């Protein structure tokens, strides 16, 4: 074999090896790409959160390699509307320093207010036992229910036309001073004890035309998300010893009976040094429901205003007045 044939032979051999190597390299890269795409498409949310837990279908990509998650579908509307009530709202931020140190008291407060949420939802949604009482100046019908051996309970329902105000409504009703924006009978309010971000003890002062003087009350208040578009805010009073020498009366809650065993002390100069009459919340609160084109607000209210015997025949009037005042919330939001 002469030199010319030898050169041609080696040239062809080198060319064959080169082409074969390129083909193998290309196939390897294609396999890796396909494997990577397949692995990512099979990652479930739980697998992504575990970062290294093996899947029954495929292994989670190693953390040494960058992991890319490609969204092939539009975001779910449920993800976009995570309720803000689970965020640390301004009311809780301001009251964190008032956190209750008594574990037993915290447990009891949670137990009785969980029951209060259930009762509020029942009285807000049932029609049993309610009778028409009057129509407010805003045209809203107010109903009353009087069970045997129990205090009367008032209820009314109204609409706020803008559904985008749902969270604003929750915020203003959760804020102890929120009623200053719409309720002419409201004087002041503040948090006096914090149990968690959705469970507080508040002190509120009200004036009431049907009564002879300003009233104040302590109440546990709880905010509870029932569903994505439904929230309950409920208040109820236990026996709070505030060292006020002018108020020695022991109240009995005949609606939320479990709260009668809730006892604690509060020592506030702005109460014990003033000659004010204490009121008592049997059950009061709101069922707030977001609809497609409006927000439904149902207000349930039953209070003991500590009325003197001579005014007993007018005991229903303060409750009705309180219900009529809350209806100003409708015009407050509709006029914005």
Automatic annotation (TrEMBL):
Coiled coil: none annotated. Keywords: Signal. Residues 1-25 form the signal peptide. Gene3D superfamilies: 3.30.530.20. InterPro entries: PYST_A (IPR006486), START-like_dom_sf (IPR023393). This is Fam-a protein. It comes from Plasmodium vinckei.
